[in-house]
Amino acid sequence: MAAAKVFIVTGASKGIGAAIASYLLGQSHKVVLAARSGDLLESVKKSHPSQVEYIAGDMTSSDMAGNLTNLAVKAFGRLDGIVINHGILEAQTIDKSAIETWKRVYDINVFSCLAMAKAGIPELRKTKGCVVWLSSGAANKPYNAWAAYGSSKAAVQSISTHLAVEEPDITSVTVAPGRVNTDMQAAVRASGKDTMNKAQYDTFVDAFEQGQLLEPEQPGHVIAKFVANPNAGLSGRCLNWNSPELESYQR
């Protein structure tokens, strides 16, 4: 078996983040988890006491990214990869939205993600490691009332491509996971009727009712496999989880 590697996974308490962490742990890797739900992270640590460390808190806290990086190195001696999975969706049309809402979305979806990647760069240079940023189809396709969310994901995609150019020893990619059966999808179905274009909103409801949503493990396992064994030739790319370029990770 290959030597265990060390990863940071944000938004790791449930959904895609939890699926990524679970796969990595199943492959005997070490994982530092981050989320606001400390009880859920503690349960993972109890199940894998020698493989898991965590920090429960808000990723927008000024010291969160540095503390996670330092914990990985202190506990496990290195850092091989980061999966930046946390984020929020606020749905409101541009004309009705508040600039403060945009600032909050960008603080979570862009600036705290940038801070996490930035904090890890010195350690990832040593290991020729990897950063996987979770993106969204909304980065490239407009949805009514999703301007703040979609543009924040587009910003992340751009940052990832720039990181790939600036740090040739670090593989940096964004992965869009598709429509996954998570709390975010439930929130879209619950509140989107009042803000979204009806035709677009109906596609989200229909996908759920017809059982077409992905399970978190489907994109989650692809992402976990990639961060553990990155293809440096894909650095700088913005990919869908099921794209042909990631075929070898889908098996």
UniProtKB/TrEMBL annotation:
It is an enzyme of class 1 (oxidoreductase). Belongs to the short-chain dehydrogenases/reductases (SDR) family. It comes from the Eukaryota. PROSITE patterns: ADH_SHORT. It holds the Pfam family adh_short. It comes from Purpureocillium takamizusanense. GO terms for molecular function: oxidoreductase activity, acting on NAD(P)H, oxygen as acceptor. SUPFAM superfamilies: NAD(P)-binding Rossmann-fold domains (SSF51735). This is Benzil reductase ((S)-benzoin forming). Its EC number is 1.1.1.320. Keywords: NADP, Oxidoreductase.
